[in-house]
Design goal:
CATH architecture of the largest domain in chain B: 3-Layer(aba) Sandwich
Largest sheet of chain B: 6 strands, mixed
Number of domains of chain B: 2
Order of helices and strands of chain A: HHEEHHHHHHHH
CATH superfamily of the largest domain in chain B: P-loop containing nucleotide triphosphate hydrolases
CATH class of the largest domain in chain B: Alpha Beta
Shape of chain A: globular
Helix content of chain B: 25-40%
Strand order of the largest sheet of chain A: 1-2
Oligomer: heterodimer
């Protein structure tokens, strides 16, 4: 195992986040806080409680998850797309680094950044509402698993993308709508029955439900379904990354 | 008379068989820095970039790979360095297979690609340190400093790469390739688009690296530099190695020589009886030019001079010149297209 290489890639990526602190940290924290203030204050004044939890507190796990999904994907996608775009990928491909080590460095750094952001937002939300975390270990499990899985997805997108438009395509047109419609701002049982069924086809609902359960012990779907969904998605992403490196897809001619 | 071209094609057969010039295959196999056998690359488009390439690069030599644009130089280098997957064939680096034993193989290689590829936002020192880390070497600020000083980049160590000139970026890429202390360095068109001074610095660096025992494989369009610097030359065209030869030996064997006689009295035409020599006239009949093989026609000059004397053709001065590697190269490539 080329530990130095993994450490080098990881440190390089973390340093990139520091170099672009405003874009990497301040911007997502600010926009999530705005969601929290606007939705929490505007809608929260009409809906006092959801499942025994105040509306302001109810939306916190969903907002963290929303940010976690989008930031993990865009962080990891940009991290691997950028060397492809400027040509410095040659160095990575010619170095004595295995595909596993490359993924470990890039995905590890992207996931770390997302988790740090999640924790910052959690701390920020705590300023506005009283938060309690019923199952902190499970919260950490969901946080880490989601960050890693969606960083892997971002890595795949970054390799697949051959232009900035494609780089933005999946995060903007698929992830964000799924996250918004995935129960960030409402519980499923608040929807008409037909929409409840439709919503169950949205994989993000399982992630948000599981994450929210770790806070308040209330969930839209069972914990097992949530874990199964994230586990299945993680497996698919790992398989895709394995195939990419085996075939050299969009990396090696 | 054997023409230079015929010579070339006789040599081509030897190179393709894998012997790589006059050295025996057995010797080359045992101690090659780079050992390539049966290397073929087909792209999905059907384009055949390399076809059954056999090549051995010796330890510690400067090997110049010459070929026209699209000949397969960069593809060959890219496969050896892990940037492109081969369709068929094997490559050993210091005896390590580039697929099965990729870590050991790549550890020994440094690559300076043709294109200037840099992360515009990174800083010089950090960028070079990053390269060292990628190759699995622990941090070593002294080594980074030494490489940056060698390449006159130490004063720029805290600058972002976007602020560097083209020549500095080229030097930075060399620094990045050298900082993990490779034994074998690939320089793909290192002097393309750089000014005279930097080119001279670059060649001084190459000489210093050679003295330190580094094997250097370079591609260049400045053939006179290959002629001057390289121990051996390989010519690649249309994805095939056409020739591998010691540079000096190649010049000796294949360099055409030209004898120019400055005549006392200009000639209107070359006498019929001298037609066997293939003489041409120059400078309005003031010069008589005889072109001959450097190796094959040694006895022909005394005979020519005697014949000229017999025809009453006298000269007041003469000079000879040998064809350059560039001319040999052009001849080889042109004939390769036939």
């Amino acid at each position: 195992m080329n530990v130095y290489a993994v450490r080098t890639i990881y440190a390089h990526e973390m340093h990139r986040a520091l170099r672009t602190l405003f874009q990497s940290v301040v911007s997502p924290v600010l926009s999530t806080s705005l969601y929290f203030v606007v939705f929490g204050a505007a809608i929260g004044s009409h809906i006092t409680e959801v499942g025994g939890v105040s509306y302001g507190a109810f939306i916190v796990p969903g907002l963290i998850m929303l940010m976690l999904l989008t930031q993990s994907v865009s962080n990891a996608a940009f991290a691997i797309y950028f060397p492809k775009f400027n040509g410095t990928i040659y160095e990575l491909l010619s170095a004595p680094v295995s595909s596993f080590e490359i993924v470990l460095g890039y995905v590890g750094a992207a996931a770390t950044k997302s988790i740090i952001l999640g924790l910052i937002i959690l701390a920020t939300a705590n300023l506005f509402v009283d938060l309690e975390i019923a199952h902190p270990v499970w919260m950490a499990v969901f946080l880490v698993l989601t960050a890693v899985t969606f960083s892997l997805l971002g890595f795949i997108i970054g390799i697949w993308a051959d232009g900035f438009e494609k780089l933005q395509f999946i995060p903007l047109l698929i992830i964000t709508p799924l996250a918004f419609l995935g129960g960030t701002f409402y519980a499923i049982d608040m929807l008409p029955p037909a929409w409840q069924t439709v919503t169950l086809f949205n994989p993000v609902i399982y992630l948000i439900s599981g994450f929210r359960w770790s806070f308040y012990g209330v969930a839209d779907v069972s914990l097992a379904a949530s874990l199964l969904t994230i586990g299945a998605f993680l497996t698919v992403c790992l398989a895709a990354v394995w195939w990419i490196f085996k075939t050299g897809y969009r990396l090696k001619a | 008379m054997t023409t230079p071209t015929q010579f070339l094609f006789r040599e081509t057969g030897q190179a393709d068989s894998g012997a790589g010039g006059q050295a025996s295959a057995a010797v080359m196999d045992a101690g090659s820095a780079i050992h390539v056998r049966g290397l073929t690359k087909h792209y999905d488009s059907g384009f055949r970039a390399l076809h059954d390439v056999n090549l051995d690069i010796r330890h510690g030599e400067i090997f110049a790979l010459l070929g026209p644009n699209g000949a397969g130089k960069t593809t060959l280098i890219s496969i050896i360095c892990g940037l492109v997957n081969a369709s068929e064939g094997t490559v050993l680096v210091d005896g390590h297979d580039i697929q099965r034993d990729f870590r050991a193989a790549r550890q020994r290689l440094g690559l300076v690609p043709q294109e200037l590829a840099t992360d515009a936002f990174a800083k010089v020192h950090a960028s070079v340190s990053y390269s060292r880390g990628l190759f699995g070497k622990p941090r070593n600020p002294a080594k980074v400093e030494q490489v940056l000083r060698d390449l006159s980049l130490w004063d720029k160590r805290d600058e972002r790469l976007m602020s560097l000139s083209g020549g500095m970026k080229r030097r930075l890429m060399i620094a990045k390739a050298l900082v993990h202390e490779p034994r074998i360095l690939f320089l793909d068109e290192p002097t393309a688009g750089v000014d005279v001074e930097l080119r001279r610095d670059m060649w001084n660096l190459v000489q210093r690296l050679k003295e330190d025992g580094t094997t250097i494989i370079l591609t260049t369009h400045y053939i006179e530099e290959a002629e001057e610097m390289a121990d051996r030359v390989g010519v690649i065209n249309q994805g095939q190695i056409k020739l591998v030869e010691e540079t000096r030996e190649l010049m000796r064997q294949l360099g055409r020589k030209q004898l120019t006689l400055h005549l006392e009295t200009p000639l209107a035409q070359v006498p019929e009886t001298l037609s066997a020599y293939g003489l041409t006239l120059g400078d309005d009949g003031h010069e008589l030019i005889y072109t001959y093989d450097g190796q094959g026609d040694r006895d022909s000059i005394p005979a020519l001079l005697q014949a000229l004397d017999a025809h009453g053709i006298h000269f007041r001065d003469l000079h000879t010149q040998q064809s350059s590697l560039e001319e040999i190269f052009v001849s080889l490539v042109r004939d390769g297209h036939r």
